[in-house]
Write a structure and sequence with these properties.
Helix content: 10-25%
Structural class: mainly beta
Largest sheet: 9 strands, mixed
Number of domains: 6
Length: 706
């Protein structure tokens, strides 16, 4: 029986801390995937760049309908290995030239080997711009015709663990993919042009037919252009995905690829432009075509940076696109009709969460003629909900509410304030919390609580929510106060930018404290040695003053684990908890579920821990980026992956013919270099880059020098 135990926090020892450091050094990592998606019903090649991928075995994509198969792998080569490969290529080319000179056909296996070695040499970069992209994996991805459209996660599985996840989209329209970029070279100050991509002019602009999704990568200083024909009256939605694909790039400022979109007509006039969509870095724009003709869409980085991980997907279509819904949420099981705003929504219907959906933020989308829109967040709560009633712009006209309640409202116009009155006894606590930016509303809220005399008791602009790892501007407000006396208190809500309009929606919770918590576990995958243990970090996001102990338990799969507990103490926001296994190996990564339980009075709260990756933004800030799954593998370190190709055993007589012609010639290598060169030859041979004849001659050279 497979058994894994979650141990108490006090059992974390120095051995486990060292194991964690070793794990961090050996964990596979992927920095980009290109293309970052594909159309349903297609098969295509995908390129991933990362590091520590040498023992790669397979790839996994979350959700049904998508499969991925590893076709080849290029590890980072040393300068010495490049010399060996160049010698091999020259020898093969000389052999082919001799055959051609005598008008003899070149055997297919020789032609194939020349292409294989040349392709490998072409990928070499002496000094990569980002060393963590130096290992290259190639996959064959098949997206089934019935695969659900939207975002998935793709990971690589190696003999030593599972990589971090990256976003991979299932698309609905035909796709065009530019030639993948090779690993970018490091740029030297003052000589940046030497490292820039040398691309022929004809590749700068690509002809496409809409609807279409364009996949590309932006190199330093590049602009990619797409030419397409459009007819008068077409209502085009041009949407991009870039930051959504790779949320944080550690060594880039502001921390992600910032795309800029512009559309020009046949005369070269700019007719549309967008560098972000509201507060989101990925631009989206709507254009109603005024006349038949050709149009050119261009995309570049805002400050002309670029690298192989500056990956984008841009879709031009007449698909439905939701810009906002109202209200931004509802009571579980009682969600009524919603207002929906956006583009190409005539005849579209919103797909709401099921009645039994769990509380919190869900994702909803519109459907029109079988085509689904983008997703928008939608909050569910268990509390009574009401709408704000204008005009409630000041204390004299404040809207009376009773706790606990959620108010769905709008900042209707510039400088609008919504005011709500609530009665409270002395010593009772009032909590006021805004959900707006977390629900894709442009509201940058400001909250204040006053007493009946107009005295400000508390005021708040922004409050960080570490549970939303993709947000960098935490614009939602939060207050909790104790009422100093019996009386009526007023909650004022406005926008700090003094903006307003129909899309400026919010949800305002006014209640007593509702102690609660969320959990994040980092990293989102774990590799454990046979019958060993490995620590993971568990973060508690405490709400409304909750300071109780949280008991952590393994939940599933039920037949794989022995129930154990660990406690995240009341005074801790994070602990390291070891995961221990009695397994020797796992054939496939296991999907593991961990839950946290806590007591609030007589009520027990149970929350599932969300897997996350600890990501750095622009050399400084760190974010917990949620993942869809928590993957665990168990491996036996004594088992080494078998070489894919082993040299045949040769007799002494056979070996003699490979001996150097002059055994007394000065040795080419020192004794110290020979062992390393033999390892390099063995590795290159195992990767099918060397012929038998070439390999044995080079080995004989080393043996003669020993």
């Amino acid at each position: 029986m497979r058994r894994v135990a979650l141990l108490g926090a006090l059992s974390v020892t120095g051995v486990l801390v060292m194991a964690a450091a070793t794990y961090a050094q050996n964990t596979p990592y992927i920095g980009y995937v290109y293309p970052a998606g594909g159309q349903r019903g297609t098969t295509f090649e995908v390129r991933l760049g990362g590091q520590r991928l040498t023992t790669m075995e397979s790839a996994v994509v979350s959700g049904p309908g998508v499969t991925a198969e590893v076709t080849r792998f290029y590890r980072r080569l040393s300068n010495q290995e490049m010399v060996i490969l160049r010698d091999q290529l020259k020898e093969l080319q000389r052999h082919a030239a001799k055959l051609a000179k005598t008008k003899k056909p070149v055997p297919p296996h020789v032609t194939h080997q020349i292409k294989r070695v040349q392709r490998r040499l072409d990928e070499y970069v002496n000094r990569a711009a980002c060393s963590s992209h130096s290992d290259i994996a190639f996959l064959r991805v098949t997206v089934g015709p019935n695969a659900t459209a939207g975002a998935r996660e793709i990971r690589l599985v190696t003999a030593r663990g599972v990589s971090n996840p990256l976003v991979f989209h299932v698309g609905q329209v035909p796709e065009v993919t530019r030639k993948p970029m090779k690993t970018c070279a490091f740029q030297i100050l003052g000589k940046e042009y030497l490292a820039q991509r040398k691309r022929p002019p004809e590749e700068e602009e690509v002809d496409v037919m809409t609807p279409c999704t364009m996949n590309g990568q932006i190199a330093s200083g590049e602009v990619n252009r797409y030419r397409f024909a459009a007819k008068k009256g077409q209502r085009l939605v041009i949407s991009s995905k870039a930051r959504e694909l790779i949320p944080y790039i550690a060594d880039a400022v502001p921390g992600w690829f910032q795309p800029v979109l512009s559309l020009h007509n046949a005369l070269g006039e700019e007719v549309a432009f967008n560098d972000d969509f509201r507060f989101k870095p990925d631009p989206t724009m709507y254009y109603e075509v005024p006349a038949d003709g050709e149009y050119v869409l261009s995309i570049t980085d805002a400050i002309y940076r670029g690298r192989e991980d500056f990956v984008y997907r841009v879709t031009v279509s007449e698909a439905p696109f939701v810009t906002s819904v109202f209200p931004l949420g509802g009571q579980r099981g009682k969600v009524g009709d919603l207002e929906m705003d956006g583009w190409n929504l005539d005849g579209a219907q919103l797909r709401l969460p099921p009645e039994n959906a769990w509380g919190g933020i869900q994702k909803i989308r519109a459907v029109k003629n079988g085509v689904v829109s983008n997703t928008v967040p939608f909050a569910l709560s268990w509390m009574q909900e009401v709408f704000d009633q204008e005009s409630n712009d000041d204390v004299a006209h404040a809207q009376k509410v009773q706790r606990p309640i959620v108010v769905n409202g709008r900042i209707d116009r510039a400088d609008d304030w919504d005011v709500f009155a609530v009665d409270c006894k002395a010593g009772q606590k009032i909590v006021a919390e805004v959900q707006a930016r977390r629900l894709d509303s442009p509201v940058d809220s400001m909250l204040k609580i006053t007493d009946s005399a107009g005295k400000i008791l508390a005021i708040n602009d922004d409050r960080s929510d570490p549970g939303l790892g993709l947000n960098t501007h935490h614009a939602d407000s939060y207050l909790m106060i104790s009422a100093p006396a019996d009386g009526t208190y007023y909650v004022h809500l406005g926008d700090t930018t003094r903006s307003g309009g129909p899309e400026y929606a919010y949800r305002l919770r006014i209640s007593h404290p509702l102690p609660d918590f969320e959990l994040r576990i980092v990293p989102s995958s774990l590799a454990i040695r046979s019958k060993g243990a490995m620590p993971l970090s568990v973060y508690a996001i405490r709400k409304d003053g909750f300071r109780g102990d949280i008991r952590l338990q393994l939940k599933s799969p039920a037949d794989a684990f022995v129930q154990g507990t660990a406690v995240l103490p009341a005074d801790k926001e994070m602990i390291k908890v070891p995961l221990r296994t009695t397994l020797k190996v796992t054939e496939q990564p296991l999907d593991v579920v961990i839950v946290g339980k806590a007591k609030v009075g007589e009520r027990e709260i149970v929350r599932r821990a969300v897997a996350a990756e600890d990501r750095m933004q622009a050399f400084l800030w760190r974010h917990l980026v949620p993942a869809q799954q928590f993957k665990v593998t168990v491996f036996n370190p004594a088992i080494r992956p078998s070489p894919k190709r082993l040299p045949p055993e040769l007799t002494e007589e056979e070996m003699k013919k490979y001996a150097p012609a002059d055994p007394k010639a000065p040795a080419k290598f020192s004794q110290k270099q020979i062992a390393g060169r033999l390892r390099q030859l063995k590795s290159l041979y195992g990767e099918s880059l060397l012929t038998d004849d070439f390999y044995f001659r080079k080995v004989a050279e080393c043996q003669a020098a020993m």
